[in-house]
Amino acid sequence: MATTVSETKDSGEANSKWLDAHYDPVANLYTFASCIALADLHGDGENKLVVGDLGTGASNMKLKVYKGTSLVSENMLLDLPTGLVSFLMDQHEPRTPAIAVASGPFIYIYKNLRPYFKFTLPSLEVNPLEQEVWTQAKEDMIDPTSLKEMLEGIRETAEIPLSVRSLKFLMLERQAMENFVSIHKQQPIRRQTVITCISTLKKNMAEEDAVSCLVIGTESGDMYVLDPEAFTILSKMSLPSVPTLMDVTGQFDVEFRITVACRNGNIYVLRRDSSRPRYCIELTSHPVGLVRIGKNVVVGTADETLLGYTQKGKKLWMVNLPAPVVTMATMDHHTRGFQAVLVGLANCQVQLYRDKNLVSTIKTPDVVTSICFGRYGREDGTLIMTTKGGGLIVKILKRTAVFDDRDTVPGPPLAQSVRLNVPKKTKLYVDQTLRERENGVAMHRAFQMDLIRLRLTAARAYAKALECSLTPMSASLTEPLKMNAVVQGLGPTFKLTLYIQNTAACKPAMGLAVCFLYDQTLYSMKTTFFKIPLLVPGLNYPFETFVECLSDRGISDIIKVFILREGISTPLLTAHINMPVSEGLALS
Length: 588
Fold this sequence. Notes:
Largest sheet: 4 strands, antiparallel
CATH architecture of the domain at 481-578: Sandwich
GO biological process, one term: retina homeostasis
Oligomer: single chain
Number of strands: 36
Radius of gyration: 41 Å
Strand order of the largest sheet: 1-28-27-26
Strand content: 35-45%
Structural class: alpha+beta
GO molecular function, one term: smoothened binding
Low-confidence stretches: 1-11
Keywords: Acetylation, Cell membrane, Cell projection, Cilium, Cilium biogenesis/degradation, Cytoplasm, Cytoskeleton, Membrane, Olfaction, Protein transport, Sensory transduction, Transport, Vision
Subunit structure: Part of BBSome complex, that contains BBS1, BBS2, BBS4, BBS5, BBS7, BBS8/TTC8, BBS9 and BBIP10. Interacts with the C-terminus of RAB3IP. Interacts with CCDC28B and ALDOB. Interacts with PKD1.
Main location: membrane
């Protein structure tokens, strides 16, 4: 019950930061975070939502554009989109961005929502043995059965993979092979790769409206940087595995970093003038989401964890998530200077993390498949989400919303994760360290000897205190008593109150007396000895007396209090009362 109340409270606090602008559960939008973007398509200062809709996966793929809550444009796509970005191709007025849709081996460029250009990836090198085998089949030197056996042998031993034609041929049944060979043997062999991810890179300026290059990752493990005007390849880089997620920062003509998550579970960092990765981050599980916050990289993995790394691959922190990660996005609110990570989870939650701290949680009616934060229409802080069932959710960040840096999840305080300002090693520190290394055994023995002596001294003092009853609590099992004293007044006359308690379970204490011992040149008491009546167990008995200070020199001393029992010479317990300095003058 307590957990339910806590979750409801957290959800209410999150919803208080967001306005529910729009929710359409039957929008029929089936997409991912890589196929959604916000762009000012007409240069009127009003951003539109551009979505690459996957349709059914085999048909009905469309490029959709939303304005506000309504669908304003649709364009049919020939194949499944793998990525979608908006970018500026040139400096011509009006400054309207183009839309690049990656699909198969092609990039379709749309300008003013009309088809403008199609870029095709360069063909890959064909295996010469495969080329020779198909040439023999073309000249009818081998039959389809021999062709299949030779292609299978090439596939197992060759370093260069087979083309799509050969792979399709190897999948056919025996009766369909001859027809396939007769149709394709006259056509040249081509080995074509496909695009797996796409992003943009500023060309020579860091401004938001600067010209950007296209950065694409391919199934062959290559990265290409394309010129935005001529669509020629400016740079080519190679990776050890197939790229799946990508984040790009910097300018192509100055310096840039491309952080790529690959299918082998590693993250690689590519830099300018380097055809190979400079750094490698080895993960314990496959990456599901990758975003950059400042100079740090945040990765969501398949084992329900969120990890933070530096640009050079040093691990900073790790957070365990309550459910698997479905999608991730950056929340960059420029006007507030606020940056955080939005994480869509499989339990119908979107969690907002700033560094390792969970600052907000948004409940959704369905599992979120894509997230996009930015300027939509004329509103800067807009959060757009699509759901697994094809729904569209639009939320607007309130202008009064404040996100605390503290973690909303119970755990260790923030100060525990703050790095200490450790001073640099001085010469004295180094000398002491060397001395400790050389004389470690002798120093340890000396420390142990001093520690044993300290324990022995403390044990002797404690035994003496018990033996002489010098403690405010009685050590006797037959007469368990406890006493404390209170001194009141400024002087020269003080009121001394003793509180005596019998801590026995049921046995009353009888035949007790109180005696005071003090310096008679400093203090005077009318009663230095009096008997105590019967003490009932559990009650606190106050006994009052007055002490007069005889000195005007501003000094003080202690007064010893003893609780005695008739017939026993050793006191049951003793208390030393530190008297305050008298602020008045003693009357003669």
